[in-house]
Amino acid sequence: MTISQTTDTQPARIVVDDLTVTMQLKDRSFDAVQNASFTIEPGQTLAIVGPSGCGKTTLLNVLGGFTGATTGEALIDGAPVGAPDEHRATVFQADAVFPWLTVRGNLEYGPRIRHAQDAASKARTDHFLQVLGLEAFADEFPKVLSGGMRKRVDIGRAYVNNPRTILLDEPFGALDEITKEQLQDELVNLSVSDPKTLVFITHDIEEAIYVGDMVAVMTPRPGRIRKIIDVPFARPRPENVRMEPAFQELRREIQSLLRND
Ligand SMILES: Nc1ncnc2c1ncn2[C@@H]1O[C@H](COP(=O)(O)OP(=O)(O)OP(=O)(O)O)[C@@H](O)[C@H]1O
Ligand SMILES: [Mg+2]
């Protein structure tokens, strides 16, 4: 099933230009993000890896419109990032499903509160229930779902709104390896069937390579972008791509950048 895309829901182009975010503490200030620059072309996934506290969430919060730039700028489709709106969706590590709504109710929540429930949004709900393997659970409440299923609900909820950009902050951090790999596959498959511009934050180097078209490696505080690496593998990812020498070589390169070798 294909979902019609109107021109105003085309994936976004994101440009971050010399962005610095300075945090003010009681007696001092420091840069949580320093001089970050990158461009994400429409429909591409930028994965960001970096040590804890290096400013990944801060960077994502700027793109989400939750935190302002101190200097430099972040542009979405040529305009400075504004207040959060329906063109951007965020998926956090902790799942954010509403326990009082069924799985279908969770997916329909966004269109419903925007008074945008129509035949197209219903078709999108059915589509993502199916793509994410949630159909059999559509009328169940979240309490019967596993952690992986709840994450699928979060992802479905983001996609149903048909945003231009989806920001994901360590979304699979709490899942076991197998479930994590299944969800990585689903996300990569979605990037083919329903392209969105994705920013995907993770601690996990393999995950960054697997889901990213590019991997941005950040330095420890103050968070700078150390290097942006292009990922050469096809989408959907070839089976066993993680075992390929080229994949392992990228993994080693990123590991060594993170260690500051
Ligand atoms: N509102 C705030 N005020 C002051 N300092 C903050 C604020 N938010 C974050 N920080 C600090 O900014 C730095 C970057 O934090 P951030 O949450 O962006 O890191 P992170 O890379 O997402 O870390 P993690 O991998 O642990 O999630 C940290 O030192 C943090 O303590
Ligand atoms: Mg964080």
From TrEMBL:
**CDD domains reported for this sequence:** ABC_NrtD_SsuB_transporters (cd03293)
Q: Which InterPro entries match?
A: AAA+_ATPase, ABC_transporter-like_ATP-bd, ABC_transporter-like_CS, ABC_transporter_ATP-bind, P-loop_NTPase
Q: Which SMART domains match?
A: AAA
In the UniProt record, does the keyword Aminoacyl-tRNA synthetase occur? Answer: no
Provide an example Pfam family for this protein. ABC_tran
This protein is called ABC transporter ATP-binding protein
State the organism named in the record.
Amycolatopsis rhabdoformis
Q: Recite the UniProt keywords alphabetically.
A: ATP-binding, Nucleotide-binding, Transport
**Molecular-function annotations in GO:** ATP binding
Start and end residues of each ABC transporter domain? 14-245
